[in-house]
Amino acid sequence: MAETTVKERSGSQARQDELQQKALRHLWMHFTQMGRYDAENPIPIIEKADGAYVWDIHGKKYLDGLSGLFCVNAGHGRTEIGDAMAAQVRELDFVTIWSYAHPRVIELAERLAHLAPGDLNRCFFTSGGAESVESAIKLARQYHLKTGNTRKTKFIARDLAYHGTTLGALSATGLPGFRAPFEPLVPGGCHAPNTDSYRWPEGRDPLWAAEKILERIEFEDPSTVAAVILEPVQNAGGSLPPQEGYFQRVREICDEHDILLISDETICAWGRLGTMFGCQRLGYQPDIITTAKALTSAYAPMGVLLASDRIAEPFMQGNEMFGHGFTFAGHPVAAAAAMANLDVFEREDLCGHVMEKEPEFRGMLESLRDIPIVGDVRGVGFFQSIEMVKDRETKETFTEDECKWLLRDYLDVELYERALICRADDRGEPVIQLAPTLICDTEQFEEIHDVLRPVLEEASRRIGL
Ligand SMILES: Cc1ncc(COP(=O)(O)O)c(C=O)c1O
């Protein structure tokens, strides 16, 4: 950033104070303990971004190690995406896709169908991830209703998995703390163990978690189960990859019981795992993909549900319809952003870059394993996590107080202080999650390393390891 003069700085100090006061008084941040902030503990305000970095209102530069929130995959400051959005406003600012279509959304639907695996040829647009999941749950139920399976209403998801906060998506979400304040949820959300094998006893069948899904289906009665909804690599819990053959076994189980397999790729699509869709990296064919976030690299809010021809077919006849929709779904400006974003992906081969650089990124994280607090390193593509433990031999985890100190009082503060934006999370065991923009390379991997090493070493010391 250009050097600022003293006059500019003091001018900006007044502006910073004003923004801070307005934010403290009027802004309601999501999933944020607003009471943590006051004049002494200011809200972090980010005002500029470019490439792999963002800057706060004081002009301090941070490496965006979380791609915003797993969404700015193409990197910040792509003016060509903004130009495409501006051009779209000049041509057609808005038309609803309730009974109308427009060129950009048609072009985008065709492009997504070509990119998606198998016969996922039908695109139902939404405004975000939870809306996509919500739509998939309703679609699965209505599909079964239309095909004569009137009792198939339940859906199986996994422990700890996050599928969004709307009441249907929350019913799929497997985080008791997120669900409890909003009970009763939409009925039908059932859960099975996830693929977190780090703490599994030695010698456990690698397909144990897949068989647990079958067990849950049998417990519920297969004739009442509409769908299984899974992320390719589960985010909550710390980028949990599936075991070899896991999805192939789940696919078999679903086919056996006429249950739809929904791949929730809100995070795992758009190059995050090195392929356009996460299921392509892991080699399985879902009936429905739900996604959002980096479809536009977050330059505009947009989500989409891709359905196979088989699932869409009953809705395409005569007077039939999927009675569901959102005003902003398929917004022309968001569709223009998505098209321009996909142009960037193609031109710069961002998926190829992730595949090529994954070993280097992962290798950098693996090099931290000598630090006592580092228990596990896992993930796929540019979607990796470090699980922290008190004892590497026994995998003993932290008490609630230790965990609070480690994540909220130490890591959150220290990582931000050292200009690395990533996530210290304890929805399962405590993890540091990293999902950098897909343009990151050796320079950024080294920066991440140079922050994490001293911070994790100090955390180990302070915890007494
Ligand atoms: C797997 C998954 N599904 C759904 C959602 C909800 O997406 P949104 O916040 O866009 O509603 C998220 C958000 O992170 C997610 O990770």
Quick tags:
single chain, 465 residues, alpha/beta, Aspartate Aminotransferase, domain 1, Aspartate Aminotransferase, domain 2, 2 domains, seven-stranded mixed β-sheet, 15 helices, binds pyridoxal-5'-phosphate
CATH class of the largest domain: Alpha Beta
N/C terminus separation: 40 Å
Secondary structure: helix percent: 40-55%
- Per CATH, the architecture of the largest domain is 3-Layer(aba) Sandwich
Kindly report the CATH topology of the largest domain.
Aspartate Aminotransferase, domain 2
Question: Strand-and-helix sequence, N→C?
Answer: HEEEHHHEHEHHEHEHEHEEHHHEEHEEEH
CATH superfamily of the largest domain: Type I PLP-dependent aspartate aminotransferase-like (Major domain)
| Major sheet size, sense and barrel closure | 7 strands, mixed
Radius of gyration, in Å, reads 23 Å
Structural class, by secondary structure, is alpha/beta
Percent in strands: 5-15%
Unreliable stretches (pLDDT < 50, length at least 5) are none
**Cofactors and ligands:** pyridoxal-5'-phosphate
Mean pLDDT: 96
Number of contiguous helices: 15
When the domains are counted, the total is 2
Q: State the total count of DSSP E strands.
A: 15
Strand order of the largest sheet: 4-10-9-8-7-5-6
Shape: globular
